[in-house]
Amino acid sequence: MDLGINERVAMVTGASKGMGKASAMALSEEGCKVAICARNQSDLDEAVKELRGFGGHAIGVCADVTDEDDLERFYHQTVAELGAVDIVVNAVGGAAAGTVDTMTDEDWQLNFDRNLFPSIRLIRLALPA
């Protein structure tokens, strides 16, 4: 499939496994330059190796997106090495499980801190000035 995104710069969080990795692979297959991040360096290195195996241009940055400094470092390293960001995929996983009546405020805060706020922060960084 040709989505017309060849040579675009994509950032994918949570990209060493699962949906994040699958998203990064699909973007690479479309010809995107892909920057991925994850917390585990060895998993990250393996994912970058696989992305480059497609013949694509990929970088990996070990980062915890819940840490604002790590998130900013991921963004700035991406721009420095690949150029301005065109595509952002937020695929960090993991959440406190439960139902509205069983989850505590701490559970909700964990979910927002892990899944919502990093997404908003990265999109805000990537928006054109």
How would you describe the overall organization of this protein?
The protein is 48% helix and 16% strand. The chain has 129 residues and is of the alpha/beta class. The protein has a single domain (9-126), classed as Rossmann fold. The protein has a 4-stranded parallel beta sheet, sandwiched between helices. Helix 1 runs parallel beside helix 2 (41-53) and helix 3 (68-82) runs parallel beside helix 4 (105-126). The longest helix is centred in the last third of the chain and has 22 residues, at 105-126. The chain is globular and about 50 Å long.
Write the layout of secondary structure elements.
Elements: E1 9-13, H1 18-29, E2 33-38, H2 41-53, E3 58-62, H3 68-82, E4 87-90, H4 105-126
Parallel strand pairs: 1-2, 1-4, 2-3
Helix pairs in contact: 1-2, 3-4
